[in-house]
Amino acid sequence: MITAPHEYFILFVVMAFMLIGLYLRDYGMTILGAIGCMVWGAFILMYTIGGVSNFAVDALGIIMIAIGAYVSIRGSMELM
Structural domain boundaries of the chain? Predict the structure, then answer.
């Protein structure tokens, strides 16, 4: 099990990657960040944050997957 500070660092890196891609209008970078966001959300659903499993943690995982999916779809539509 990964401890909580590492998980938050991964979240920070993924979100920064996605936001920098949006700021620079580099949609390929944004899509990669969104995929990382979806992977992080799936990781939360499987392994929880710091060993704590409750409704709020599961909701956070689902929300991260939804944000990643939305940004990925919007970024791919901008590339078309």
Answer: 4-79
